[in-house]
Design goal:
175 residues, mainly alpha, 8 helices, 71% helix, membrane, squalene monooxygenase activity, Squalene monooxygenase, oxidoreductase
C-alpha cells in the first residue's frame, strides 16, 4: 500500500510484473513448487530497488505534507514546491523517481536532502537571523528524522546493496 499522494502502488505493481515475467521466463514448469520458490526468493530481492525507492518517496512526502504547525516542516513543504519549480534536473529527477523511471535509492536521498538544503538556503536569504538558523537546523534534523527511519524499515542492505543479498545471484534450477 502506498500513499495516494504519489500513486506509486500501480507503478510498483507494473514493475513487479516485468521483474516476475523476466525471472520466470526460463522456468519450464510452473507446477514445480521447489523451483518456483527459489525464483520467488530472487523476486523479492530484485524488486527491492524500485519498490523501496517508491515506498520511501511516498512515506517521506506524506510526512512532509502532513499538516503540522512546525515552522521547519512548513519551510520544507514550501522548499519542495520551489525546488520543483526550478525546472531541469530539479524537477526531472524527482519526477523520474516518482514515476519509477529512476529506481536508484541514492538518487532519492540526494534529492530529498537537496530540497532540505534548498530550504535552509531560502531561510538564510537575505540575512540570516538566529531564529532562521535555528529553523534551518530543525529543517535538516526533521528531514533526517523523516527519511532515515523509512530507509531503515525498508532495509538498508536490500535497498542500497541488493547485489550483496544471496538470492540476487540465484541461478535457474538445472533440469
Amino acid at each position: 500500500m502506498r500513499h495516494p499522494l504519489t500513486g506509486g502502488g500501480m507503478t510498483v505493481a507494473l514493475s513487479d510484473i516485468v521483474v516476475l515475467h523476466n525471472l520466470l521466463r526460463p522456468l519450464q514448469d510452473l507446477n514445480d513448487a521447489a523451483a518456483l520458490c527459489k525464483y520467488l526468493e530472487s523476486f523479492y530481492t530484485l524488486r527491492k530497488p524500485v519498490a523501496s525507492t517508491i515506498n520511501t518517496l511516498a512515506g517521506a512526502l506524506y510526512k512532509v505534507f502532513c499538516a503540522s504547525p512546525d515552522p521547519a516542516r512548513k519551510e520544507m513543504r514550501q522548499a519542495c514546491f520551489d525546488y520543483l519549480s526550478l525546472g531541469g534536473v530539479f524537477s526531472n529527477g524527482p519526477i523520474a523517481l516518482l514515476s519509477g523511471l529512476n529506481p536508484r535509492p541514492l538518487s532519492l536521498v540526494l534529492h530529498f536532502f537537496a530540497v532540505a538544503i534548498y530550504g535552509v538556503g531560502r531561510l538564510m536569504l537575505p540575512f540570516p537571523s538566529p531564529k532562521r538558523i535555528w529553523t534551518g537546523a530543525r529543517l535538516i534534523s526533521g528531514a533526517s528524522g523523516i527519511i532515515f527511519p523509512i530507509i531503515k524499515a525498508e532495509g538498508v542492505r536490500q535497498m542500497f546493496f541488493p547485489a550483496t543479498v544471496p538470492a540476487y545471484y540465484r541461478a535457474p534450477p538445472v533440469h
